[in-house]
């Protein structure tokens, strides 16, 4: 069982930046898993944002965030990050981290956090 806790969400103006963190709690060891970030806006399906392999050398992004968002991980700190720059109002959503796959498909992931809210004002 892997327990994931997201943090770092909040309210930011369009064009601003936020860094989300996803920490594994308890006895969870995040380094055993490829990881991903997804987001879900009200009334919409949960969608892929970014994914990272075990050691951070494999990266993949949704087209909508490419060049603005950066996923990274620090296995020593048992944490995965999502640096979000040049935020747009359409980036507003609840952001979830997930463990278990290097994939853009939700179905590949075994474990999910509870999410952190990102609000972008125009």
How does this model look, in words?
The chain has 122 residues and is mainly beta. It contains no helices and 11 strands. Strands 2, 4, 5, 6, 9, 10 and 11 form a 7-stranded mixed beta sheet that branches. The radius of gyration is 13 Å and the shape is globular. The model has no long low-confidence stretch (mean pLDDT 95).
Q: Roughly how many Å apart are the termini?
A: 40 Å
Mean pLDDT over the full residue set: 95
Beta-strand residue fraction: over 45%
Structural class by SSE content: mainly beta
Query: Which term fits the overall shape?
Result: globular
H/I helix tally = 0
Question: Helicity, in percent?
Answer: under 10%
Oligomeric grouping of the chains:
single chain
How many β-strands, per DSSP? 11
Quick take:
By secondary structure, this protein is mostly beta strands. It has no helices and eleven strands.
What would the keywords be for this entry?
seven-stranded mixed beta sheet; 122 residues; single chain; mainly beta
